[in-house]
Structure formats: C-alpha cells, structure tokens
Amino acid sequence: MSSRPSTVVTIIVCCCALAATLPGAVWAGGGNWWDVEPEEENPSPYYDSILYSEIAPRLREIELTSNRVSVEVLGQSAGGRNLFLVTIADPQGGGLGKYNAIRNKMLKDPAKAQQMADKFGDFKVPVLINAGIHGTEYPAVDAAIRLLETLAYAESEDIQAILDNVVLLINVVHNADGRVLGTRRNANGFDIDHDFITQSQPETRAVAELMRDQTPLVVLDLHATVNPCLIEPATPPHNPNYEYDLYIKWAYPEALAMEAELVAQTPETQALIPYRDWALGWDDWAPIYTAMYAMYHGAYAHTIEAPYRDERGVDGLYAAVWGALEYVAQNRLGMLHDQIEIFRRGSLDLPQQAIPPSLLPVHDQYPDLMIQDFPTAYIVPNGPPFQPSEHQPARLVDHLLDNGVEVEKAKQPFSYDGVDYPKGTYVVWLDQPRRGLANTLLDDGLDLSDIPGLTYFSAPSAWGLPRLWGAHHVVVDGASAISTKPVNTATSPTGSLQGGAAVAYAYLPTSLAAIQATNDLLADGVTVYRKPDSFSDSGRDFGAGAFIIPGDAVLATELVEDYALDIIALGAMPADAVLMEIQTIAVYGAPEVAHCLEVLGFDYDTVTRDDLDNGDIVGYDVFLNQNLEWDDLTPEGRSSFTAWFAGGGDYVGLGHQGRAVDFAIHFGIADVTSTDMDGNAIVHIDYDPDDTVAAGYADNGSAFMNNSVWFSAVGAGTEVSASLASSDFVISGYWPGWSTSGAEGMPIVVHASSGDQDTVLIGFDPTFRGMPEDSFRMVANAIHSGLN
Fold it and tell me: Which of 404, 418, 142, 194 is nearest to 303 (CA)?
C-alpha cells in the first residue's frame, strides 16, 4: 500500500485531456457560471457542509489557480440550478490524444481499438465521480471537493501516478436542488437515482449523455449512509444484459482495493461488499440506478455508501475513491481491454461467458439468470396500423438514439413471420456495441415470480419501454435479410387532415399529444366536445372518447401542424357530444402523479391533509388520489368530503397500495371488492375500446403494477373499463403466486356514476416514477369522464 497525501488544498475542477471532445468552460446560458446569488439553504445538521452557493466560486478559484483543472456547466437541475462538471488532468503529461483515438474507435471497430490500446500503452483513461445524487447525503459532495482540492495542487509520487494514468471527471453535485432544499429528491420531487431508464428529469439526462459520450472506464456514485461502508458490486440477481464476467473480473478486486484503502485511512471504519458478504438484498437487476446504467456503457461501476453523515462520512468516501484511483492507475490497460471486449462481443454477436468459478460467491443461487440469449433484432413499426399513432415509436426511437443505441430503418418493404412491413420501419439490430443497453430498453424482461427465495432490493423488476410507452414491437429471432440503413433521429410525426371542409372535425385520444392539444385548446378558450361512446359518421367508425372541434379548417390545420394529429372531417356533429370545460383538479399523491398531469398539460393543485381537513376540497371539480386513506382524515375532513361527493365532486383513485380504492369504498362511492398484489410486474390488459375510460387503447395492451389492486367483485352499475388478461397475464416482473391468485380475467379499471358524481378506480400504477407513459392517457380519460 502506498502512502497517501495528508494535506488538503483548495478545490479543483478540470476538462483537460478530454478537452478535445468535451465542451468548453463557457456556460451557454449567458453570464458567468461562478456568479451565484446566495439563497436560503439547508446545510447538513451533522457538520459544516459546503453550501451549494459556495461551490461555483470555489471551483472558479481553483480553475484560475491550478493548471490541472477546468470547469464547465454540465446542465441545469429541475429547479434551474447549475450542475458542474470538473475535469482533472496533468497538462504536462501525454496520452490524452492516444486515448481519444482509442475511444473514437471502441464503438466503431472494437477489435481495432483493442489493438491500438495494446500498441500505445501510455495513455490516460477517464474515471467519473458522481456526487450528491441524493441531496441530504451531504458527505458525497464534500468528499468530491476534498478530492478535487488534493489533486488540483498537491505534489507526491502517489498523486503523480494517478495523474499519469487517469483523467478524472467529477459531477460535483448531481442534485443541486436537493442540496439547497435539504431533500433527498430534486425540485420536481423525483429520486433521480431511480430515473436512468425513463430519464424523465434533466439531471439524469445530463449524466446519461455524459456517459454516452465519454464512455468512462470507472464510475463511482457517492452516497451516504449505510453502515458498514457499502461498496458494490451487488448481490444477485444480476441483470443478464450485462457482460458480467468481464465486469466482475475487475470490479470485485477494485472493491477490495477500495476496502483496503478505507481501512488504512479510517481504521475505525469497516466495509461491506454485498457481492461477497450478502446472499441477497442489494441487487443490480434494475438498470434505473446510476451505477447500473453506467455498466451498460462498459463502466466498472460502483455505488459507494458512506457509513456516517458527518465528517467521518467524508473521510470514508474520500478514502474509498482514493483506493479506486490507485487501482485504476495500476490496472488500466487490462481494464480497458475488457471494457472494449464488451463492445466487441456486442458488435460480433458473440455469446456471453459465465463468471469464472474463482469469482463466483458460494452463496450465489442464481448463476443461470445472468446469461442472456439475445434476439437478432427488434422491429418497431413507425405508425398505423401497427401503432395507435406515430408519436410513441418516434419517442422510443429518439430515446434509444439519445442513449447511444444504434437504430436503422428498412430501405424497402419486407415481410417477417407472415406480416408485411413498409419501407421506413425501424429495425434495432442486436449485433451492435451497446447490445446490452439496447436489449435492456426493448426486451419484455423475465417473469421471476416463482423462483424460490428470490428477493429484490427495490422495484421495478421489469421495465420494458415499448409496452409501457405504447410502442408495438416485434422480436426477430434467427437470420433475417431485412435491408436497412442507419438513422440519426426518428422521423417526426406528421399528422394528417382527412376530408377538407366539414361541419366538425374529430381526433382520437391515441397519443399524449392529443391530450396536450385538447388542454391547450381549452386554455385558449376554444370550444371542444368529447363523445363519450363510440359513433359512426359517413360510414366510418370512431371509438369512444373522440375529441370534436367545430368546422374550423384553419384550426384543424393548426392541430395537424403543431401536434401532428390525424384530424378527420365529420359530416355532422355527433349526438350526445359533451361540451368540455377546464376541470379544477386537487391532487394527493407522489410527485410522479403531478409529473403525469404536467406532461398532459392539466392545471392542478397539490393538497395536504390539513387542506382537506379544513374543507379545501370545496371548489374543485376532481379529486385525484393516490395514497390518502379514509383514516387519514379528521371527522371534519370526512364530513366535507361527504358533502362534496353529494354535490357532484368527481373522484379518480389510483391503485398503488390500495389506499385510494379503500378511500372510495369507505365513502360509499365505489361498490367493489379489491385484492392487493404484492410485487411489481408488467401485465397483459384487455381494454374495452368502447368504454369512455379506456378510450384510445387497443383491446390488447399492457400496464405496470406495483403493489397494486385488482377487483374480485364489482357491484351493479359499475362499469369495467379494463381487465387482466384471462391467462398468462404476467409478462415480466416479480409477483409471487400470480398464477394461483385468481386474478386472471378480473377487472383492473372500473368506473361508476351516481347522479352528477363520477368515480374512476385505476387498479394498476399509471404514473410509477414517470415510467409508464402510455398509461398517462388513462388518467386523462378518467378526469374527462366526469364531464359525461
């Protein structure tokens, strides 16, 4: 073990060796990024943590006084605060150009990149430190700053060894909002460490783009607190889309090096390595986390959880990172060769390899789960009749491209498995460098429900984006001769105007854009109708829920141009069309419920228990409830709700943990019997396209359930909008005992009316962490159904 520097200097941030590929240090937002106006902040209660407002000036000071450092603004938080990327490199050392040449080849010609690495020998590799993704885990940011201070100025053989071999990238404070507000989550209320597949938040997108572009060799995500100090790799189950044998070959000994340095620098601190020390309970199955997502870009990635919330936590994280940097400096050539091997396997469609027995823990019960049988490709048609609209496949394809997945499109019509597809159909071939990431984003996943003893750290255990975003896809197995060419962006939806001048125009609720357009029209004072049930016009059949505007051809054209909607001319205004009005909406639920409404363009107010106990529900048209229980209200609150329901107040209950369903049952506005499910899964759903709440959905669809409910009995007058499929309804995920639960074919979405009062209960989880975007439309339908 080498000696370590004992002195701490001031802070550092740099953008050196990779300066040829990273943006410059000028913030495109205008003004000086280091000029920060102080605001009220919530520092750590356990020690004198650096304030967010103090970080930028200190970074600027270091940038001006250390030639090893450069700083840039990586992006902005949800609350509009800057995220700072610091790069540290020795400007006197060589090897930067050599590594850039290797990196430019590793995704285009991995075999050539390996040859270049073997030939060059002397070059630096990028290591990314991600700090403070949870705002209240203060030691992470302070440890990163201490590391910056040391490497910016200090001189020693140990430091020079790191600078000779590593370019250090530091995302100094990933969750700027949380650090200021004293919250785990960002200003939107999202845990951004759970967002790396959906990427609904700006902080996540910024770091995902950094990983895509820089392909760091190692990623260390700094957290606090778990005691003893937790250093990944993780327990089973390991996601099969990793090349886990290549990862664990270096990640496990790197974890041991971090443990050794931790104990050497802070003798009172002990380490825990889940891969070695636990059988289950801290898995890397879900790709939603920073470290897990980084593994799909070839990184040897680790979550590190400090054991203390005070200065000892700063000491522990600093020591662990120092151990990792020393390990990389000594092993970078072999580590880089195997990182590139991940991409080579993908490019050549080579089979995965099992973990060597010498590295497989004796307690690992599930080694067979780690081997993936990759398909040949995925077909993603880009519009009707395969898709409900052009919007969903375009959204999916752009997401794939944004994450570095290669997408192509057919150069001519083709057939597969007896189905004809047009020219321009998207094809994602799996013989590509990032095949693991491509398959993770597109695959349905596995049903692991009944594997004995299996447990998960947290949901989700399934996340198939095509199903949850409403983009039909087809798996191609075996050889296929589809002629394709690469695409750099998805073809933008175009929409259409069918029929010319007319008495009225209709469009269907088959996309998020249709809901957004409707809310924008209502906000602008435009007259809009909704036809609750299906109807026919001029020999054409329309499903339930169609939106109808008066015969204004200019307005119809604007909807095509601005929202890419398919607008259809009508010969007559349908009977019983309901005049729409802006609904005042009160929301009680997690932040993702609000996120759903914001995506759809609804105005809403978030209410608290105190608000509701004070009778503030009066004045709202709709109460959207995710987790308020009847017992949560005082007698006064219950009385105000009883009067509000009697006066025609509409209720939308979301099924997570059954609280909102029980709320409706207690108040007598729902005649149902609900049954809880324990787990999370993507499930087959049979929608009723003629039902007002299921409007715009195909009869066979999907949804996400997370500790949700289904209905074992519904009373007279209760309409069923959707049910679980009658057999094999679990597509993927973890729902122990689902096959014997009796849930097959049972209702999952219901609605009922009593006079002017309408109730909708959605048993699945339509807003889970912003992930199931296709289900957002059902929340809109539920809100609109109260107008019927």
Answer: 194
Which among 336, 257, 222 is positioned nearest to 2, based on CA atoms?
A: 257
The burial of 507, by beta-carbon neighbours within 10 Å (0-12 exposed, 13-18 middle, 19 or more buried), is given as buried
Rounded Cα distance between 336 and 123, Å, is 11
Number of H helices, E strands in the chain: 21, 37
Q: Which two tokens stand for residue 582?
A: 């802006």
Structure tokens at 436: 């693991």
Instruction: Count CB atoms within 10 A of the CB of residue 236.
Output: 24
Structure tokens at 549: 């505007």
Round to whole Å and give the CA distance between 150 and 130: 17
For residue 106, what are its two tokens? 């590793």
State whether the Cα torsion 497-503-509-514 is positive or negative. Answer: positive
Q: Which amino acid is at 179?
A: R
- Averages of pLDDT over runs of 10 residues in the chain (788 residues) are 34 36 42 92 97 98 97 97 96 80 95 94 94 98 98 94 96 98 98 97 98 97 95 94 96 98 96 94 95 98 97 98 98 97 98 87 72 95 94 98 98 96 98 98 94 81 96 93 96 94 96 98 97 94 96 96 97 95 97 98 98 96 97 97 97 94 96 95 97 96 97 96 97 96 97 96 97 98 89
Q: Are 200 and 595 in contact (CB under 8 A)?
A: yes
If phi over 0 gives left and psi between -120 and 50 gives alpha, with beta otherwise, what is residue 612?
A: alpha
Distance CA 91, CA 101 (A): 18
Q: Residue 449: what residue type? A: S
Neighbours of 647 (CB within 10 A): 11
CA distance 521 to 513: 12
Query: Domains in the chain, start-ordered, CATH in brackets?
Result: 17-25+53-348 (3.40.630.10), 374-486 (no CATH), 496-579 (3.30.70), 585-785 (3.40.50.880)
CB atoms within 10 A of CB 766: 27
Q: Would you tell me the crossing angle of helices 435-442 and 391-402 to the nearest 10 degrees?
A: 150
Alpha-carbon span 134 to 175, nearest angstrom = 6
Q: How far is C-alpha 235 from the geometric centre of its chain's CA atoms? A: 22
Q: Decide: pTM greater than 0.90.
A: yes
Residue 249 neighbours by CB under 8 Å, 6+ apart:
338, 356, 359
Q: How far is CA 373 from CA 294, 346, 370, 639, in A?
A: 21, 12, 10, 58
Contact status, residue 243 vs residue 321, Cβ threshold 8 Å: no
First to last CA, the chain: 74
Name the 3-class secondary structure at 554.
helix
The tokens for 584 are 């005042």
Closest CA to 151 of 133, 171, 170, 132: 170
**Using CA atoms, how far apart are residues 619 and 609, in angstroms rounded to an integer?**
16
